[in-house]
Amino acid sequence: MTLPSRRALLMAAAAIVAAALLGTGAWFWHFSGQHRALSAYAAALTQAQPAQSPQATPDAREAAIRALESALTQYPAGPGAAEVAYQLGNLRFEAQQYAQARGAWELAVAQGATRTLKALSLGGVAYTWEAERNYQKAVEAFKTALTGVGPKDFYYEELLLGLGRTQELAGQKAEAIATYRRALSELTQSRRAEEIRARLAALGA
Fold this sequence. Notes:
Blueprint: H1 6-51, H2 58-74, H3 81-94, H4 98-110, H5 115-131, H6 135-146, H7 156-169, H8 173-186, H9 193-202
């Protein structure tokens, strides 16, 4: 059997070391990339926080929107992208930029938002359709937001009553009555029980 030459062994060793270095470099690049993404997100979210105040000026809101969009453009899929997209949706909605808000909230969902953030984002999508008076799409969006959410979950009551309200606005009287009755049945401790009963009475139920 012919033994490999010293040169061949050195070349093989160099290839192994190079592969190891490339692997280490890829890991370091990935880690440092995540760190940069988190830093960019944190800076943008810090700027966005005061812009959500009712006292915030339109200029401050627009500056915050640009900062959030810039962070997402630089790092479209970093850890925390869902939170940035969600806050961008909030600011877009406050600025009555409903289509853009919808896009931001849909991005938050696509980026793997947590369960609560997903419910809030999908609910936000429904609110944009309602604001645009597209009540049929709002109904469907509220139904989507309610998927997998139950009476004990955060935001369930708001989503369920949003569904009933938009069903009313869409002329779906029987469906709205069923939704309000569902709310009374499932949300027995609701502080909005009288409001729900008033809606049922107004619908002749």
